[in-house]
Amino acid sequence: PADPPAFVPVLPQPAELAAVVRRASFSLDVYRGLLAQIHDCRNGSVFVQVGTEGRAVMRVHTPLCPQRRVAFIPPLPRPALRPRGLCSFTQILSTEERGGLSYHYLYVESTVDKPETRLHIYVLQDGLWLPRAPLDMHQLPRPLLQPKPVLVDTRIYMPAGLSDIIVLDLTASSFSTIQLPRGTKHDECGGTTMLARSYDASG
After folding, report:
1. Which tens digits make up the pLDDT trace of 129-166?
2. Segments making up each domain of the chain, as ranges
3. Which residues have CB under 8 Å from 187's CB, separation 6+?
4. CB atoms near residue 162 (< 10 Å)
């Protein structure tokens, strides 16, 4: 089997950052011989899945705080699907909350031969994946095959269609759309589309 992924040293930081930058070496050698996938890396926490679907173990490493134990996360939930429903894609999303990280699990269900999409969303609380009410996307462009969604505060941004971004407001349980600049569009699968978080009042 292939070697597991590992973090590599970054280039030297400018002198003015030396006093505030925290560094730590981290490797997944402990999982050598196993399938290890990094699902999320943010604010010093690394969300890792070890093993294949159905038998996977979820863990959160904190290399900047080695005194913390590795956190074990319950298996990802699998919602009941509608007739002829299938899983389009899944994604673990994180957002900063109360000084720590809050994790969400997005499971997108599509229907064979029909332009129907349903979003299943779970929130990790007290070691359990708690489900929210499923949301149906009516008369909205279908998400890309590899949309790479982004969670910012309480909104999920997800590329869809040829030139749209679907915005899901988790608080209001509502959808809206943003159009890409004129003359730009997604590729068929979305592999070249990447959204980035903004850290100002624009969201």
Report:
1. 999 999 998 878 888 777 888 898 889 998 888 888 99
2. 24-73, 85-179
3. 193
4. 14
